[in-house]
UniProtKB/TrEMBL annotation:
One annotated GO biological process: L-threonine catabolic process
Protein name from the UniProt record: NAD-dependent epimerase/dehydratase family protein
Family statement drawn from the similarity comment of this UniProt entry: Belongs to the NAD(P)-dependent epimerase/dehydratase family.
Database matches in SUPFAM superfamilies: NAD(P)-binding Rossmann-fold domains
Residue ranges constituting the NAD-dependent epimerase/dehydratase domain according to the UniProt record: 4-227
Domain of life: Bacteria
GO molecular function: L-threonine 3-dehydrogenase activity
Length: 315
């Protein structure tokens, strides 16, 4: 049976990943860790430890004790929060990742690392952004993602650590709210549609970004970590996407269910500048070819599922 450790387990990805892993592999085989425990009750029962991923000694102690064959290292700050506190972003995103990779090297655990569309910058081709292309981001979040991609690649080549990762687009979920990202509008819009029937977007009309419904993201992570290594030409990290849209298109999809839904704009210049530096759409053909990446949800099916579940959740 596999043994798995997750850092940053109470974030948007971690909460749903731990739920699925505990269901698939048995609760006792999945160690969940986070710097805080306030929402730990949202996880299905199983081992939980408070861990600041920057603390290399404690990280190593947990890995030595639990002996995971795979570490999903999710602890990190998102783009908008990172831009407000670049030093903290560097500390958490880089030092946390170094600690996970060191544990991978010393204790022979595979390491999953979540990169982002933020690993690209204004000089990268914006449409159908290739897997291998120019990566010169102009945000601290993007800088930490590129540096971590290179580190993870280095650990694989130099020490044979089984590092793998994806470049996530904006992730959309009705269970856990994202915190401090640029793509968060694409989650907020659904909450506000159900609660208020209207939404004011901080991202401008016509701004395209890649997005994904969280069940596809979770399935993709597990699928990549279980993929046959002999098929992997790339490692850190694969472009993956499910859809690319701009705010008017989400609004139109919502109006198929809530015809009176209204959308207006109060653009936030900081998050708009970040969005403008990112791709409009990714080319994910390498992930499709090397480990059969094949997401299930598009904008219409995701919208129907989000609204159904949010109506049930919010009443
Ligand atoms: C963010 O907006 O910061 C994240 C991301 C795309 O990495 N959702």
């Amino acid at each position: 049976m596999k043994k798995i450790m997750v850092s940053g387990c109470l974030g948007q990805i971690g909460t749903e990943l731990v739920t699925k892993l505990r269901h698939d592999y048995g609760a006792e085989n999945v160690l969940a860790t986070d710097i805080r425990e306030d929402t730990a009750h949202a996880l299905p029962e199983g081992p939980f430890v408070i861990l600041d991923a920057r603390d290399g000694k404690k990280y190593a102690e947990q890995v030595e004790k639990f002996k995971p064959d795979t570490i999903y290292h999710l602890a990190g700050l998102l783009s908008a929060t990172a831009e407000k506190n670049p030093q903290l972003a560097w500390d958490i995103n880089i030092n946390g990742t170094c600690n996970a990779l060191e544990c991978g090297r010393i204790y022979h655990s595979a390491v999953f690392f979540p990169s982002s569309i933020a690993a690209f910058g204004p000089g990268t081709p914006h449409d159908k952004t290739p897997q291998d292309t120019l990566q010169r981001p102009n945000t601290i979040y993007g800088v930490t993602k590129v540096a971590s991609e290179l580190l993870a690649e280095y650990y694989h080549k130099k020490w044979g650590v089984d590092t793998r990762g994806v470049r996530f687009p904006g992730l959309i979920s009705y269970k856990t709210l994202p915190g401090g990202g640029t793509t968060d509008y694409a989650v907020d819009i659904y909450y506000q549609a159900v609660q208020q029937g209207r939404y004011t977007s901080y991202i401008a009309r016509g701004t395209y970004m890649d997005m994904m419904y969280i069940p596809d993201a979770i399935d993709g992570m597990i699928q990549l970590m279980e993929a046959d290594p002999s098929r992997l030409i790339h490692r850190c990290c694969f472009n993956i996407t499910s859809m690319s849209f701009e705010p008017e298109q989400v609004a139109a999809a919502i109006r198929a269910h809530i015809p009176s839904f209204a959308l207006d704009y109060a653009v936030d210049p900081v998050r708009q500048a970040i969005a403008d530096s990112w791709p409009n759409s990714l080319d994910d053909s390498a992930a499709r070819a090397e480990w059969d990446w094949n997401p299930k949800y598009d904008l219409e099916s995701m919208t129907a599922d989000m609204l159904k579940n949010l109506r049930a959740k919010l009443g």
